[in-house]
Amino acid sequence: MADYLFQLSVEEAEEFLVQCFMRALARSGSNAVARSVETPGQLLQMKEVCALLRISRPTCYEWMKAGRLPHYRKGSRIYFKQAEVLASLEKPKTKGK
User: Fold this and answer.
1) 56 located within any domain
2) Are 82 and 33 spatial neighbours (Cβ–Cβ below 8 Å)?
3) How many domains does the chain have?
4) How far, in Å, CA of 55 to CA of 24, rounded?
5) Which residues does the UniProt record annotate as the domain Helix-turn-helix (predicted)?
6) How far apart are CA 87 and CA 89, in angstroms?
7) Residue 81 host element (H or E)
8) Which CATH number fits the domain that encloses residue 36?
């Protein structure tokens, strides 16, 4: 039962999966998510964070106000660091007072 169609190293398999994921996102029209996956160190805008987390703008503002979603302001614009957004998802939720 050791018949394989092809053999991949871990790195090759990871690259293959990333490419499949990117193609699927491109087909679904989710460009904001696809672009944020391509360059993980970049700054994201509100619409990109909402698409990435699949939340609405009001929910994003609530999470920002509660300190759950770290953000930065430059004038009237709001930016998010992708690594911090993803890390904030790993933090446990705190119960209200």
Assistant:
1) yes
2) no
3) 1
4) 20
5) 44-91
6) 5
7) strand 77-81
8) 1.10.10
